[in-house]
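Hello,

Our lab assistant flagged a job as stuck in the queue for most of the afternoon. It eventually completed. Since we weren't sure the result was trustworthy after the delay, we are filing this so someone can double-check. Below is the sequence as submitted and the structure that was eventually returned. Let us know if re-running is recommended.
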Amino acid sequence: MKKTVIVLMILLPIGAQAQNDKFGTWTGVSLDKKLSKQLTLGTELELRTGNNLKNIDRWSAGISLDYRLAKWLKAGAGYTYLYDYHPEAYTYQDDGDLNKRTMTYFGSRHRLNVSLTASKDFGKLSVSLRERWQYTYRPEQANKRMDYQHSDLGYSYPVKGKATNMWRNKLQLKYKATRLLQPYLYGETYVGGSGFDKLRLSLGTELKLSKQSSLNVGYVYQKVYDDDDEEGNKHVLSIGYKYKF
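-- returned structure --
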């Protein structure tokens, strides 16, 4: 109990520090199929809302393969298709005149990842560390940006395609309190080409509904450090259902 109070004392001031932070939800369903003793195939569907539940931020569908190299070590690879919401945005000249306007649009992204996860049990406490590299490509979006200063570009022109590489580090602690209840705490960092991109902190619990199924409910706080990251700081209610067969 004391440990939980300490964690909350750390998380709550962080979550309350910015009035502009938005609230959203992440809901998902995943299915895992054990192909062999070492190999597992996974699929996942997810829907995210943002801007205090006013917008659908994105939906995504992914597929993955995990291979257990040892009892304590697992390798994985996956692909995810993402369909994102991009809000209207403006840039201005130094004199205050309008420079560019990007219209509201939904756009696709393609994401690949490879990872290594090491885990160790200490009685009822499980500690895991996941190192993941992810590559994301956003295709060009036609006629979504307007330029008010350069007539040679025409009135509108595309949002150019963009590729990004990210290194993600996730450290998680999970405690097997009962057969049903397994609370957890994790921190995850994102490091990209421009340096430290963002931080996620989460506190929640896994509810074991049966031998095959579980429900994950948690709170996530995201802090963004890269000005080019459109996600922004946010508080998230995360709910996910998993079925293994």
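-- support follow-up --
The delay was a queue issue, not a problem with the job. The result is valid. The chain has one helix and 15 strands. The CA atoms of residues 39 and 215 lie 23 Å apart.
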